[in-house]
């Protein structure tokens, strides 16, 4: 047998590059050709944090607006829910649970979805719930939605209590119905807060009736002429929403009302959102102080002289979600238009993205790559993530939910109620009311 040639042994045979399968090669080619789509999603993700939450920790917070939307607690529901349910494994100490009254009959779909959201909330949040409603209808809804077992367990554990009420106030009823139907669920829930048996109240019912009941039962803060509805909008920073008020309580405002809204928002942003010196903005058509209508000009003058505020000047519509302001004040008509517009942004943006994706097999492959991005965008812009808005200016913590609220919106709104109740914000709001009364006197 001839000896081995040392030269040939030292020279390795050339290695052939393994060929990719045709499907993989096509996939790589498609992905490179459609890099514009991926960069569009990256841009959309950045824009989403600025455009939209609901709330949201109402989640990011207004759509991580509430997986969800705040900060000072070790377990702070407003931050954890929008992160994709990461707080679901958190063990809740029953001693930390706070009582919240819920109007179980308020809303287009009540009482079933409201009850479902409450049962989910007591699993995720340190809450105990007094669920106010017509008992027979509540039990029937629980059976229809297969919630009876969960309801019984919650009642046995002492985390949920059914409180009977009389005939409820419909979504089409006049706000004055709260005077006729004294034992309506919203009135009973407000009375629980007034008597100290709950620290906050939540209702997705007729917003006019909720406001009227809050004013009649809880009363306005001293020195505050008109309560305002404040909604949390998401910004470019997922963990720091902007509080916009008023978003629907007062259609026609005086400069003094907007001045009071700014003072109320300043305290909420400082105490609950943990902003050390909230930047207050006045919604206007330009940054210059000479811009705007008479209401804007006179309000700007009042806010500029207010030493209790860090007034940052006029805020244009494009700056609301920029993160440059922590509180934005406006009249209820303008604020409500802004709120409804924001609620539409998420669905429109997703429709645009879907339309831009290629059709056929390429589109399916591209969607597979972008699915997680699209889900995050949807979360950041979904108003159900915020769940509700705060009614500031009444002598109690009141959260008003969307009339179409279902379980996720209820959970997000209760997270908001818990955050407000656990930070002692009412002490500072009462102190503000007293100081305002002294100034006006």
User: Please, how many helices?
Assistant: 16
Rg over C-alpha atoms, rounded to the nearest angstrom:
26 Å
SS content category: alpha/beta
Give the mean pLDDT: 79
Helix share bin: 40-55%
Distance from N terminus to C terminus (CA atoms, Å) equals 118 Å
Strand order of the largest sheet: 3-2-1-4-11-10-5-6-9-7-8
Strand content: 5-15%
Identify the quaternary structure here. single chain
Form type:
globular
Low-confidence stretches: 6-11, 36-88
Number of extended strands:
11
Main sheet: strands, sense, barrel: 11 strands, mixed
- What is the N-to-C succession of helices and strands? HHHHEHEHHEHHEHEEHEHEEHHEEHH
Give a verbal description of the structure:
- The structure is a single chain.
- With 441 residues, the chain is an alpha/beta fold.
- Helix content is 46%, strand content 13%.
- The protein contains 16 helices and 11 strands.
- The chain has helices at residues 6-10, 22-33, 35-51, 77-80, 112-124, 135-144, 148-157, 177-180, 185-194, 207-218, 255-271, 294-305, 332-356, 360-381, 407-421, 425-440; strands spanning 98-103, 127-133, 160-164, 200-203, 228-233, 242-245, 279-283, 310-315, 327-329, 388-392, 397-401.
- The protein has an 11-stranded mixed beta sheet with strand order 3-2-1-4-11-10-5-6-9-7-8, sandwiched between helices.
- It is globular.
């Amino acid at each position: 047998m001839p000896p081995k040639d040392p030269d040939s042994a030292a020279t390795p045979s050339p290695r052939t590059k393994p060929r990719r399968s045709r499907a993989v090669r096509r996939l790589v080619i498609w992905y490179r050709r459609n890099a514009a789509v991926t960069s569009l999603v990256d841009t959309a993700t950045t824009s989403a944090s600025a455009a939209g939450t609901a709330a949201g920790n109402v989640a990011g917070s207004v759509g991580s607006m509430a997986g969800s939307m705040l900060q000072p607690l070790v377990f702070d529901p407003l931050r954890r829910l929008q992160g994709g349910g990461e707080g679901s494994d958190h063990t809740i100490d029953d001693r930390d649970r706070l009582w919240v009254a819920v109007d179980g009959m308020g809303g287009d779909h009540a009482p079933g979805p409201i009850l479902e959201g409450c049962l989910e909330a007591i699993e995720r949040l340190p809450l105990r719930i007094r669920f106010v409603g017509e008992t027979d209808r509540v039990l029937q809804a629980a059976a229809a939605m297969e919630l009876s077992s969960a309801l019984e367990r919650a009642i046995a554990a002492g985390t949920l209590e059914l409180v009977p009420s009389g005939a409820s106030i419909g979504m089409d009823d006049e706000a004055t119905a709260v005077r006729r139907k004294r034992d309506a669920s919203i009135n009973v829930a407000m009375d629980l807060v007034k008597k100290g048996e709950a620290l906050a109240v939540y209702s997705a019912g007729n917003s006019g009736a909720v406001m009227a009941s809050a004013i009649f039962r809880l009363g306005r803060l001293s020195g505050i002429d008109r309560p305002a509805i404040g909604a949390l909008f998401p910004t470019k920073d997922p963990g720091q929403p902007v509080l916009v008020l008023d978003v629907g309580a007062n259609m026609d405002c005086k400069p003094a009302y907007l001045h009071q809204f700014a003072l109320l928002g300043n305290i909420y942003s400082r105490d609950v959102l943990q902003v050390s010196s909230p930047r207050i903005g006045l919604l206007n058509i330009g940054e210059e102080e000479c811009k705007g209508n008479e209401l804007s000009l006179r309000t700007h003058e009042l806010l500029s002289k207010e030493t209790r505020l860090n007034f940052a000047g006029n805020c244009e519509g494009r700056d609301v979600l920029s993160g440059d302001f922590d509180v934005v004040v406006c009249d209820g008509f303008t604020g409500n238009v802004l709120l409804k517009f924001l609620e539409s942004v998420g669905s429109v943006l997703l429709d645009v993205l879907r339309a831009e994706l290629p059709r056929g097999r390429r589109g399916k492959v591209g969607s597979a790559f972008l699915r997680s991005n699209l889900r995050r965008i949807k979360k950041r812009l979904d108003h159900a993530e915020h769940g509700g808005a705060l009614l500031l200016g009444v002598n109690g913590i009141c959260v008003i939910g969307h009339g179409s609220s279902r379980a996720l919106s209820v959970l997000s709104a209760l997270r908001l109620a818990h955050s407000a109740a656990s930070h002692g914000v009412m002490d500072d709001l009462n102190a503000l009311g007293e100081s305002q009364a002294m100034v006006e006197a």
